[in-house]
Specification:
CATH architecture: Sandwich
Strand content: 35-45%
Strand order of the largest sheet: 1-10-3-8
Number of domains: 1
Number of strands: 10
Oligomer: single chain
Structural class: alpha+beta
Helix content: 10-25%
Order of helices and strands: HEHEEHEEHEHEEEE
Distance between the termini: 48 Å
Shape: elongated
CATH topology: Jelly Rolls
Number of helices: 5
Radius of gyration: 24 Å
């Protein structure tokens, strides 16, 4: 009788050491801004009451490990294209996050104008940007000038409330911008 009890006791001690419990985190794509389209007037038209700058708040979800924005530009009043950033990112999601080669694989429709995009981590610099003051400071990794299409990956600023400031650098032509923003969140 002792032998089966001893064997059971030993098995109960060994079982936790042999069992493999996977604590591999899983990741998911969380849309933050789903296809927003707006028109920015030229600098000359903005002086007459239009707007050549706009800000978009970006509220990052908890446990964000990286996030992306993708945009394309079209002529004013043209049909707004669909970028499908979230769907594209889901295709490249792996058990360890997003595949390293994802940036070269993301597709955005061709752009036909340009805009400047600035990433702001604080309200003060955003206000300077919106007031057209040249002294604003932005996060370089998420900012682009003379940008007409593409996706931007941001992994160095992944917490809190951020802002994207968009500006039409043209003095004469309006530009329509379509943008999407998604985060990769660790569950």
């Amino acid at each position: 009788m002792k032998s089966p009890l001893q064997a059971l006791f030993l098995l109960s001690l060994i079982q936790p050491a042999v069992a493999q419990e996977t604590n591999t985190p899983t990741y998911k794509v969380v849309p933050i801004i789903s296809k927003e389209t707006f028109t920015l007037n030229s600098g000359g038209r903005a002086m007459l009451g239009g707007r050549s700058r706009i800000d978009l708040p970006v509220e990052l979800p908890a446990n964000t490990v990286e996030w992306y924005y993708a945009l394309t530009t079209t002529p004013e009043k043209a049909p707004a294209p669909t970028i499908g950033l979230g769907e594209q990112l889901i295709k490249y999601l792996t058990p360890t996050g997003i595949a390293a080669s994802v940036m070269s694989a993301l597709v955005t429709p061709n752009g036909s104008g340009t805009c400047d995009v600035y990433l702001f981590s604080d309200q003060n610099n955003l206000n300077l940007f919106l007031a057209k003051q040249p002294t604003f400071s932005s996060v370089m990794s998420g900012s682009r000038q003379n940008f007409n299409k593409g996706a931007v990956q941001i992994w160095d600023v992944v917490k809190g409330s951020l802002f994207l400031g968009l500006r039409n650098p043209s003095a004469l032509q309006a530009v329509q911008i379509t943008i999407e923003v998604c985060a990769i969140v660790k569950e």
